[in-house]
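ok so I'm stuck.
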Amino acid sequence: MFSDQPMQTTVRDVVTFDGIGLHSGRFVHLAVYPAPANTGIQFKRIDVTENRQTIVAHPDNVRKARLCTRIENADGVRLETVEHLMAAFAGLGVDNALVTIDSGEAPILDGSSLPFVSALMQAGLATLPVRRRTMVITDTVRVEHAGGWAMIEPCDRLEIDAEIDFEDPAIGRQRFHYIHGDGQFETQLAAARTFCQMRDVAAMQNAGLALGGSLDNAVVVENGRILNDTGLRMKHEFVRHKILDCLGDLYLLGMMLRGKVTASRPGHAICADLITTLWDATESYRIVEEGALVGHSDGYALPEVAAAAAV
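replied:
not stuck anymore, here's the structure
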C-alpha cells in the first residue's frame, strides 16, 4: 500500500467531486490535482480573490469549530468539513495534492470517506523521488475538552484507540482500536458515516448547522432506532467514524504520525487542541525521513504554493 511506503506520492490524474455541504447546504465542486513533492496538501478557494485563495493543511492553520474541522489562512479565509477528504489522503498515503474548491465547505457526499477513497484509487497514485517525512512521538501529550480527552504517546506505528458513550441506546458505549497500515483504512474505517441524534437536528439547524444533512449523508438515530432504511454498514460504525475523523484531523499536521492516540468522547475540538498542543510541544516529537533525521529545531515551514495547472 502507498500508505506504508517510504517515498512521497501524489495523485496520477485529476479527480473531481460534486455535492452538498453538510452544514451550509450549498452545492460544491471540488477537484484534486497532482502536485510536486514537498507541496503537502493545499486547498485553493477559487471563489475568493486570487491572492487569498490558498489554505495549507498545517497546524498553524487549524482552528476550533463546532461539529466540523476548520482551517484558515493568514488572510482569514476559511475552509470547513475537510476531515473526510483528509482521512482519505491519510488512509491511502497521498502526501501531495492541490485541491480546488468553489465554496467554504467540502462536499459531504455520503457522509464517509468511501467516495473519496474509491475515486482516488481509480485515478491511482504516483510515487515521487523524495522521501516521506513522519512525525515520531517521543513523549506523551494530553488534552481535555468538554468532558472528553485525548492523548498521544510513543508507539512504533500509528494507532488510534477511541471510546464513545451516548445516551441513545442505538449508539451507546462503543470502543474500537485502529492500527494504521496494510490497507486497514479501506476495510476498517473508510465506509463509516457521520451520525447524529434526531433530537439534536432542530437545534443544529437553528444555529445554521447541518442545513445539508439528510439520511443520504448521515446516520440518524432516535430512541434506540436507526432511522436510515439501510441500517448500519458495519459493527461499531459510530466509533469507527469518530476514528476516521480523528485520522483526518491529525493529517492536518502535514505528515503522518508514528504514535498511539487514545481518546474518550473525541470530537473535532479535542483533535484541534491535540494538534496545536502537540505541535507546540517540540520536545515531544521528532520529524524523520527514511535513513535521516530532520531536527525539529529547524521547524516545518508552510510549503510553497504548488505550481499546478489548476484553476
